[in-house]
Amino acid sequence: MLKDLKKICDPEVFEDVFNLYGKDLRRFLFFKTKDIDTAEDILQDTFIKLWENCDTVNYSSVKGFLYTVANNLFLNSIKRNKVKQNIIAQLGSNYNLESPDFVLEEKEFLIKIEQTIASLPEKQREVFLMNRIEKKKYKEISELLDISVKAVEKRMHQALIIMRKEIGNV
Amino acid sequence: MKDQNNIHNDQYLAQWIEGLISDSELKKLVSEEEFTTLFNMREKLNTYIELQQPLDSIFDSIKNKIGLKSKPRKVKWNWALAIAAIIVLCLSLVTLLNPNDRVFETGFGEQKLIALADGTEVILNAKSSITYNESDWEEERTLNLVGEAYFKVKKGSTFTVNTQRGSVEVLGTEFNVNVKDELLEVVCYEGSVLVSQYGKKTTLKSNDNIRKVNGNNIETWTSSLSRPNWVDGESTYKSMPLKYVILALENQYNIKFETDLIDNSMLFSGSFTHTNLEIALQTVFGALEIHYYEKEKNVVTLTSN
C-alpha cells in the first residue's frame, strides 16, 4: 500500500521531488556551467523532462534520472552555444569538462565561504548575513539591532576584511 | 589611503559592497592588487548568495510550462457543513428534553465545525471532543476539551476552555488549543487569552504560542498565521517532541505506530499533509532519518539507522 502511492505524476509528489533535489541540482549545474542563469534554465528543462516522463520514472530512481537528464542537457547546451567558449577560455584548452577535480574545486570554494561566514565573530556575522543574505539595508539593520549606522558599517567592514583574506585569493 | 570626505578607513568596504562607493572610487583607495582581490571576493560571494536563493520562482515557471495549476492541496472549509451543523444544533435544542451535558466528538481523520448557541465557532481536529453544559451556557461559557480544537469566540462574557493540563480563558478572540497526554499547546490568533496551569498564569497576545510538556519548561514563541494549518488539511509543528507528531498521524490516518526502536523525544519541525499517507510519512520520518515499513495492515514499524 505504501510503496505504490508515490506517483510522480501526482502534482504534490512532483513538487516534493523539486523541493528535495532542486537546490542540489542547481549547484551541480552551476559547477558545470559556471553561469547561474544557464544553470537555472537547464534546471527548468530537467524538471519539464521529468514531468513528461512521470509515468515511466519510479520514485526510487528519480534522483538518478534527474542527474542524468541534467548532465545530458548540459552537454547538449555546450555543443550548441557559447557557454562552451566561455568555459574553455576560462579553463584552458586541455581542460576536460567532466573532470571531477573541477567539480570538487568549485564545491570547495562554497564550503570555504560557508566556513568563513561561520567563523566570523557573532556581531559581524549577524550584520553580514542580514545585509548579504536577507538583503537588508544598513539603516534597517541599525534599527533592528539598535546601534548606529556607523557601527553597522564598521562591523560589515571587519567582516569583509576577513572574507577577503579567506576567499579573495583563491 | 587617500583622505576623502565621507569615506572612513574602517567603513569603506561596507559602503563599497552595498554600492554606496563605486568600483572606481574604491580603486583610488586601495592598491591595484588589493582591488583585484576584493573584486574576486565580491564575485565569489555573489555566486554563493545566488546559490542560496529560494527556487520558488523557478518552480512557478516550470508549473506554467507544463500547465500545472497552482497547489491543489489546500482543502477549503465547507461552509455547507457549518450550516448543517447549526441546523442539527437547533433541531436538537427543540427535541431534546434534557439538554444538559452535550458532547461533540470526531473520529480518525475527521474534522467537525460546531456552532455554539452564542455564535462561537469551534473546529474540532481528528480524535477530539468537547463537552459542555447547555443549560448553564448563557451564564457560564465553559467547556471541556480533549484533543485539539480551533476556537472563534463571539465577544461576550468570559469564555473558558478546560483541559486536563490547564485552562484557557478569553474574552473574544481566535485561538487554538491542543492537549494530548502531557502536552498543552495554545496559539492565539486574535485578541488575547489567559492560560492557567497549576496556578501559573500566562497572557497570550495575537500570534503568541505557548507550549508546556510535563516536566519541561514552558516554551513561548510567535508565529504569523491567521489560523492553524490543520484547518486547511496540513499539520504544522515547531520543535515538537516526535511522540506528539506520531499521535497526530495516528489520529489523522487511523493507523498505529510501533515506536519501541526509535527515540520519540526527538524534536520535529515541519508539516505533514492530511491527504496522502505516504507523503506524510516521508516528510516526517525522512527528515529525521527514521525508516518506516508497514508490518501488517495499518501498523507501521519505525526503526532508526
UniProtKB/TrEMBL annotation, chain A:
InterPro entries assigned to the protein according to its UniProt record, in alphabetical order: RNA_pol_sigma-70-like, RNA_pol_sigma-70_dom, RNA_pol_sigma70_bacteroid, RNA_pol_sigma70_r2, RNA_pol_sigma70_r4_t2, RNA_pol_sigma_r2, RNA_pol_sigma_r3/r4-like, WH-like_DNA-bd_sf
Keyword annotations from UniProtKB, A to Z: Sigma factor, Transcription, Transcription regulation
Pfam families for the chain: Sigma70_r2, Sigma70_r4_2
Superkingdom in the source lineage: Bacteria
Residues annotated as domain RNA polymerase sigma factor 70 region 4 type: 112-160
Domain RNA polymerase sigma-70 region residue range list: 18-82
Family: Belongs to the sigma-70 factor family. ECF subfamily.
UniProt name for this protein: RNA polymerase sigma-70 factor
Phylogenetic placement of the source organism: Bacteria, Pseudomonadati, Bacteroidota, Flavobacteriia, Flavobacteriales
UniProtKB/TrEMBL annotation, chain B:
Segments crossing the lipid bilayer: 77-97
Domain Protein FecR C-terminal: 237-300
Keywords linked to the UniProt accession: Membrane, Transmembrane, Transmembrane helix
All copies of domain FecR protein, residue ranges: 104-193
Domain of life per record: Bacteria
Pfam families: FecR (PF04773), FecR_C (PF16344)
PANTHER family according to UniProt: PERIPLASMIC SIGNAL SENSOR AND SIGMA FACTOR ACTIVATOR FECR-RELATED, PROTEIN FECR
Protein name stated in the entry: FecR family protein
Species of origin: Microcosmobacter mediterraneus
